[in-house]
Amino acid sequence: MAKRSVSFRNFLILCLLFLFISQLSAKTNVEQLLKVGRQAFNDGFYDIALSQFTKVRQNNPRYENIDYVQLLIAECYFF
């Protein structure tokens, strides 16, 4: 019985660790898309920037700075 409890605890710890790592990598992916998009925007490649910002909006609708992403998308259409 004790061995089963230890196995379940280890399983639970692994699941929580996996969730934490996946959230961390998702945030890194968002930051990478924004970085590429900002650089493309600054270089005048507005269609590429728009593509990057749109990916952020579609894949991460609950992103903490989604309003900023919407502003960047609007600026791409303006230029």
SSE map:
Layout (H helix, E strand, L loop, with lengths): L1 H41 L3 H14 L6 H13 L1
Write a structural description.
86% of the residues lie in helices and 0% in strands. It has 79 residues and is mainly α. The chain starts with a helix and ends with a helix. The chain contains three helices and no strands.
Number of helices: 3
Low-pLDDT regions: none
Number of strand elements:
0
Please estimate the helix content. over 70%
Summarize the structure.
With 79 residues, the chain is mainly α. It is 86% helix and 0% strand.
From the structure above, extract its key features.
3 helices, 79 residues, elongated, single chain, mainly alpha
